[in-house]
């Protein structure tokens, strides 16, 4: 939830720190989707991060994770297209976030060996699950008309 709060700040440093925190969970697309997708579509059927009334967390979780990834990529691709850049470019904030995660994980594997990989995967799953649990609880059953 630290990344979530930092991502809402106006300070450039705090927004960059949000991206660094998300890198630990390989969840960098969250910054884009949350700020530019979720805030627009919150509590509507278009928002993958708003839990439907009666929906269990375990049904919500994959919908939010994969729906958020799809939405974030769409948002970032559209931004780059408006600027005349291809979606798959170094200017893509999601590509940058994934690169940061890959560098972090690569460094840790280099320092500690492959035996750290299960722990990295476990903390990735835990980080994503905790962040999405907050989304689930904060938006459960909310519905608004656009």
Automatic annotation (TrEMBL):
**Topological category with respect to the lipid bilayer:** Multi-pass membrane protein
Record keywords: Cell membrane included? yes
Q: Which residues form the Fatty acid desaturase domain?
A: 2-141
GO MF, one example = monooxygenase activity
Segments crossing the lipid bilayer: 94-114
What's the chief localization of this chain?
membrane
Keyword annotations for this protein?
Answer: Cell inner membrane, Cell membrane, Iron, Membrane, Metal-binding, Monooxygenase, Oxidoreductase, Transmembrane, Transmembrane helix
* Location of the protein in the cell: Cell inner membrane
Which Gene Ontology cellular component terms are annotated?
plasma membrane
GO biological-process terms attached to the record: lipid metabolic process
Q: Which family does it belong to?
A: Belongs to the fatty acid desaturase type 1 family. AlkB subfamily.
Q: What is this protein called?
A: Alkane mono-oxygenase
């Amino acid at each position: 939830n630290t990344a979530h709060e930092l991502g809402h700040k106006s300070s450039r440093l705090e927004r960059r720190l949000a991206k660094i925190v998300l890198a630990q969970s390989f969840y960098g697309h969250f910054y884009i989707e949350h700020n530019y997708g979720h805030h627009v579509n919150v509590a509507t059927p278009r928002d993958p991060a708003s839990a439907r009334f009666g929906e269990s967390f375990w049904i919500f979780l994959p919908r939010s994770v994969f729906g958020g990834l799809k939405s974030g990529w769409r948002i970032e691709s559209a931004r780059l297209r408006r600027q005349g850049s291809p979606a798959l470019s170094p200017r893509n904030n999601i590509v940058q976030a994934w690169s940061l995660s890959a560098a972090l994980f690569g460094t840790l594997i280099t320092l500690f060996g492959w035996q750290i990989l299960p722990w990295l995967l476990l903390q990735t799953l835990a980080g994503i699950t905790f962040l999405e649990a907050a989304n689930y609880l904060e938006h459960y059953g909310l519905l608004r008309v656009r």
